[in-house]
Task: inverse folding
């Protein structure tokens, strides 16, 4: 099995493990591939660890510590995440969404239903949920890829923004990282410099309307250096990079623009442990500098590590956010099936889209 | 690597040409040399090469702006005809005054005419998502009929024995000749200026990048906030303006009169030129010259090699065919494998 | 065809300005006269380009050892004609033929600048500096076919498929009508314009429309077998106007005439060889050395009608019959040509009105 839990709730993961253990007890051999060390430790009896196409170690995961296995995976010690302190200044609301309802344009899409929330400076709001419950639609609405008729539905730093396109929203300070890296967050056939220009293109990059390619190139190099993007430098084509390195580049590109509001989807999807740590650190640092950060992720562990509050999406609705002091895997997992206060039909809420 | 395939295509076409010449009983190498170089033999012929290449380059550069953004304007032929109509109107009404502003006004009017004709498909695309390939193509026929009406009707030369042609244009409405003893006129300079301008805009201004991104990936363009509608308008209008100016160039240049068949199909040939030139302004200069050379060579084939003029169409077709094939082969690797035995296939299921 | 009496032909030419011809240096001993011909379309087995090609073929046959012909076909673009004529001239072609009116404008510009070669343009309007023109009196052919049509029709309705309303087509159909009325005063002629020189689909539709209006003899100006075949399908007679299509239209073609430009080519070449070429305008119809030739007739054509046509032909050749002799009225019944006068050649060449009895209008105003 290859990463079987990426679209499952914690409860569903638990019952999957029960089934797998039963199968193994009946004499079935199971090869389980995952980058989630806790799953391996909980499930497996022996582990082979690979890095960059090579086997780097063998162990009994029940006896190894997670950090020892992580060292084998990335070949270096993991830097512990140091949650930087939020800015001491008075919190102010930077991103506010009020009564967002939107019919899906795609027949396989999910309608968004009456979503309201806000994110303040120095805060990370996590949005959890099983894939296909409206996260993609919400991201498109927030980034500006989908625009709405009523401008007041979305406010960025108090300015109505729902009718603005992505570039206009970026001018107001909202940057975003989509979950599709190739073909959306970056263009496969273009070099990194031009991929930097994709979103790094406001006034400071232009001189009398002409692109200052040296500025863009410097910026791309900064992304590459600060985020440890491996693979060829600013002239390398986007599709020549590994998924993890490209993700670091895209996150770096958005974070280095110092947005007031950053909306990120699946920040560490398919990224190796070392890179994931670096990306999470960057998000925390951004928060410490007073930005409002919204993280949409299917990895609950990640959200629990990063977020100050977590809300859950199910069936196109958003639960009330839970503050960090009340984080509880069980409660959040239950909410992923759509059961928070007003129960919705479970069949609909629990449906999982393969797209 | 992709700049290689036009060169590869030219080489392969030349090889086939050698085979064809040999099969026709001619000495292949001297025939090929004559085929390709005799249109360049003297200054006059060189001028002919340039005046045929100029409209092709001009239109192709205009079209390439749209093509980069995935805007498929197939209506350059009609937009060229509108340039003839609008520019021709200025020439017929104000040309006899001899005023120095007549020629610039013709160019402006031609540009407006082409843009006007391109605006229809752009509007239908952005407003109703109507396929611009079909709408722009169909307008070609409307434009041709409109010009026919004018030349058969109100614009017919009263001294022309009722033949469908306008009065000859006044000298003030004609492009000055830039090379003495040839027909090469300032239309060539107009084309080169357009190439330079579009090169700068496409490579150095954000709008060029916007168009490129829109053509490469619609989701990425939306994510970046580059408007698809804007791309459609810019792409269509640029093609229309360029074709309209090229239309003025024909009546103010080699024709010097307005005929119902003012366009010799440059609007379509320019599509090939644009792709052969890799949608790059400099590439288009070369492909435009090559295309023009092929036209002239076809005449040479008839005149001195005794081969049918259809050979021009054959070579143009082969050039495009080989280039598309080379593109595929450069991008993908062909692997020859023995047929998988049926049993293995069965087992694989 | 070889028996050319030059005096007769030069009459028309004398009417136009004769520009002083510059004699070429006499060709060196044994040197061939190189002749260039440019066709706009492809040379096929019938039609305009075919008759043009027949002319230079006749020229080759006439002077097998003295003349060499270079032929360019499919030069559809007007922009190209000028360049190619110039190229042929600079390559040493001493006599150049344009085959259509579309070549006329560029040849007028070009001919004076290339004094070492001489130019001839078929269907050109008037001779110019170093440029001769030749055109056929189509109306002499259509007048005769009109006689056959007027005698054959039972409905007294004839049909004409018009290409473009240019004078050449207008005087052709007018003469057709006049020929028919000369033997049958009750006849009318209906005209449908297709606005194309060749467009098989529109030509078929036009024939069908004419038949639906009662026409039982169809003639027209686009010169392809399409109309004849369509007429045959509808069971009405067709006329091979400017082309004998009896090889295709095997039953339904009543009579036909062809255009024969051989004399134009041979005379011009001979004049160049002799060093006596001058720019002339030659406009000829029936008769020896003429450009219009009556060809086949259907076996069903009564001998009396054939005799009537032959008599008219003889009278035209003798100069005693002119199709455009007055009195002639236009469609509205207003007299255009008074009794006792005939239209001048220039008037015929510029004809823009339809004679009485023609039903239909000119498509543009």
Result:
């Amino acid at each position: 099995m290859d990463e079987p839990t990426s679209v499952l709730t914690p409860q569903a993961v638990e019952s999957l493990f029960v089934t797998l253990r039963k199968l193994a007890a009946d004499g079935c051999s199971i090869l389980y591939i995952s980058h989630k060390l806790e799953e391996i430790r909980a499930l497996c009896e022996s582990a082979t660890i690979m890095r960059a196409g090579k086997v780097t170690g063998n162990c009994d995961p029940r006896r190894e510590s997670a950090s020892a296995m992580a060292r084998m995976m990335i070949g270096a010690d993991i830097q512990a995440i140091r949650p930087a302190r939020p800015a001491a200044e008075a919190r102010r609301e930077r991103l506010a969404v009020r009564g967002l309802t939107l019919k899906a344009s795609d027949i396989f899409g999910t309608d968004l239903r009456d979503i309201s929330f806000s994110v303040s400076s120095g805060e990370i709001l996590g949005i959890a949920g099983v894939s296909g419950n409206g996260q993609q639609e919400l991201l498109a609405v927030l980034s500006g890829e989908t625009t709405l008729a009523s401008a007041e539905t979305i406010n960025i730093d108090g300015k109505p923004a729902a009718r603005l396109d992505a570039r206009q929203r970026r001018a107001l300070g909202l940057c975003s990282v989509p979950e599709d890296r190739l073909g959306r967050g970056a263009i496969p056939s273009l070099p990194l410099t031009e991929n930097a220009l994709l979103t790094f293109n406001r006034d400071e990059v232009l001189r009398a309307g002409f692109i200052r390619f040296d500025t863009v190139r410097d910026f791309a190099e900064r992304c590459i250096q600060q985020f440890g993007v491996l693979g060829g430098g600013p002239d390398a084509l986007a599709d020549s990079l590994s998924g993890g390195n490209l993700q670091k580049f895209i996150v770096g590109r958005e974070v280095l623009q110092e947005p007031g509001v950053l909306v990120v989807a699946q920040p560490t999807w398919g990224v190796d442990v070392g890179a994931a740590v670096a990306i999470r650190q960057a998000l925390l640092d951004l928060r410490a500098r007073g930005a409002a950060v919204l993280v949409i992720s299917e990895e609950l562990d990640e959200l629990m590590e990063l977020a100050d509050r977590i809300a859950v999406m199910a069936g196109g609705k958003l639960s009330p956010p839970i503050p960090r002091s009340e984080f509880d895997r069980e409660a959040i997992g239950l909410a992923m099936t759509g059961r928070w206060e007003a129960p919705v039909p479970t069949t609909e809420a629990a449906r999982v889209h393969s797209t | 690597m992709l700049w290689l395939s036009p060169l590869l295509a030219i080489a392969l076409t030349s090889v086939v040409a050698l085979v064809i010449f040999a099969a026709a009983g001619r000495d292949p190498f001297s025939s090929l040399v004559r085929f390709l170089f005799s249109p360049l033999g003297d200054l006059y012929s060189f001028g002919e090469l340039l005046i045929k290449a100029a409209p092709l380059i001009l239109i192709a550069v205009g079209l390439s702006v749209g093509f980069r953004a995935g805007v498929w304007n197939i209506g350059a032929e009609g937009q060229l005809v509108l340039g003839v109509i609008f520019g021709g109107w200025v020439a017929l009404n104000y040309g006899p005054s001899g005023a120095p502003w007549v020629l610039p006004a013709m160019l402006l009017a031609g540009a407006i005419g082409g843009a006007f004709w391109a605006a229809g498909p752009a509007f239908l695309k952005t407003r109703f998502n109507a396929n611009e390939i079909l709408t722009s193509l169909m307008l070609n026929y409307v434009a041709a009929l409109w010009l026919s009406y004018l030349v058969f009707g109100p614009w017919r030369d009263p001294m022309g024995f009722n033949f469908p042609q306008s009065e000859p244009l006044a000298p003030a409405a004609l492009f000055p000749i830039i090379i003495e003893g040839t027909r090469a006129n300032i239309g060539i300079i107009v084309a080169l200026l357009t190439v330079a301008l579009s090169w700068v805009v496409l490579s150095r201004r954000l709008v060029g990048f916007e168009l490129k991104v829109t053509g490469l990936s619609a989701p990425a363009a939306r994510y970046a906030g580059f408007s698809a509608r804007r791309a459609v308008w810019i792409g269509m209008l640029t093609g229309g303006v360029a074709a309209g100016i090229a239309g003025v160039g024909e009546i103010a240049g080699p024709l010097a009169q307005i005929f119902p068949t003012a366009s010799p199909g440059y609007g379509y040939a320019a599509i090939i030129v644009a792709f052969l030139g890799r949608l790059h302004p400099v590439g288009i200069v070369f492909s435009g010259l090559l295309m023009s050379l092929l036209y002239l060579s076809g005449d040479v084939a008839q005149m001195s090699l005794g081969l049918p003029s259809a050979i021009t169409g054959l070579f143009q077709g082969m050039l495009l065919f080989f280039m598309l094939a080379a593109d595929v082969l450069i991008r993908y690797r062909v692997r020859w494998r023995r047929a998988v035995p049926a049993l293995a296939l069965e087992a694989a299921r | 065809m070889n028996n050319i009496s030059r005096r007769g032909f030069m009459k028309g030419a004398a009417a136009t300005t004769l520009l002083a011809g510059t004699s070429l240096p006499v060709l060196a001993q044994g040197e061939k006269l190189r002749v260039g011909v440019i066709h706009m379309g492809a040379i096929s087995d019938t039609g305009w380009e075919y008759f043009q090609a027949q002319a230079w073929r006749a020229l080759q046959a006439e002077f097998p050892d003295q003349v060499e012909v270079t032929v360019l076909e499919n030069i559809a673009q007007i922009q190209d004609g000028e360049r190619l004529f110039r190229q042929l001239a600079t390559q040493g072609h001493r006599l150049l033929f344009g085959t259509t009116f579309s070549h006329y404008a560029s040849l007028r510009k070009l001919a004076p600048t290339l004094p070492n070669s001489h130019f001839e343009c078929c269907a050109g309007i008037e001779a110019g500096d170093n440029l001769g023109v030749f055109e056929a009196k189509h109306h002499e052919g259509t007048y005769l076919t009109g006689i056959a049509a007027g005698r054959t029709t039972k409905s007294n309705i004839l049909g004409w498929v018009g290409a473009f309303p240019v004078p050449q087509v207008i005087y052709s159909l007018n003469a057709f009508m006049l020929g028919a009325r000369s033997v049958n005063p009750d006849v009318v002629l209906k005209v449908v314009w297709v606005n194309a020189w060749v467009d098989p689909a529109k030509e078929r539709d036009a024939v069908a429309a004419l038949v639906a209006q009662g026409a039982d003899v169809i003639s027209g100006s686009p010169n392809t077998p399409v109309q004849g075949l369509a007429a045959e399908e509808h069971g009405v007679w067709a006329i091979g106007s400017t082309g004998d299509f009896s090889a295709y239209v095997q039953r339904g073609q009543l009579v036909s005439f062809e255009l024969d430009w051989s004399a134009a080519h041979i005379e011009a070449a001979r004049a160049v060889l002799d060093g006596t070429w001058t720019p002339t305008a030659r406009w000829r119809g029936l008769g020896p050395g003429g450009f219009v030739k009556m060809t086949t007739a259907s076996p069903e054509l009564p001998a009396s009608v054939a005799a009537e046509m032959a008599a008219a032909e003889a009278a035209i050749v003798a100069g005693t019959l002119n199709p455009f002799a007055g009195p002639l009225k236009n469609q509205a019944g207003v007299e255009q040509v008074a009794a006792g006068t005939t239209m001048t050649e220039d008037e015929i060449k510029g004809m823009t009105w339809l004679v009485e009895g023609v039903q239909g209008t000119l498509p543009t105003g």
